[in-house]
Amino acid sequence: MTDADPARDGRIRAFVALELEARVREAIAALQARFRGESGLRLVRPEGVHLTLRFLGSSAPAQLQALAPRLASAAAACPPFEARLSGLGTFPERGAPRVLWLGIELPPQALELQRACERAARASGFDEESRAFAPHLTLGRWRERAKRPPLEPVELGATRIERLVLFRSETRSDGAAYTPLRVFPLGALG
Question: 108 CB contacts (<8 Å, ≥6 apart)?
Answer without folding.
Answer: none
